[in-house]
Amino acid sequence: MIQEIQIDYLNRNIKHIDFLCVNTMQNVLSKVPVRLFNNDKPTSKNKFYLHTKYVIIKSLPQDVPVNIMVDVEVFTDKKRVLLKDLNIQNSHMDSDVLICSTK
What is the DSSP letter of 38? Predict the structure, then answer.
């Protein structure tokens, strides 16, 4: 499992990668990026604003998502979206984390 990647920001080359040896039967804590999509469509009622770029997920290493994609069209009737509103399988997390909200 990748723990950290160091990138040379001038030429965007990878300088170094740290790997973590994990037990596939034990949960790990992982920092997972959050992304919004369908937020700029003219048909959407509300514009959502991201409140957190990352969430901490506890799961087995093979169940860690690459990222969490939030389709804001699904939440058009809501003013805010919490982590518990998203359907993230096989994970344990702080479910009351605010992900995004309307202004």
Answer: S
Helices (H), 1-103: none
Q: Does CATH place domain 24-102 in 3.40.50.2300?
A: no
Cα–chain-centroid distance for residue 71? 12
Helices (H) and strands (E) in the chain, counts: 0, 8
Token readout for 15 is 């300088």
**Extents of the domains making up the chain:** 24-102
pLDDT in tens, 43-86: 556 788 889 999 988 899 999 888 999 888 888 778 888 888 88
Q: Per residue in 2-54, pLDDT tens? A: 888 999 999 999 999 999 899 999 999 888 999 988 877 655 567 888 899 99
Strands 98-102 and 80-82: antiparallel
Would you say the pTM of this structure is higher than 0.85?
Answer: no
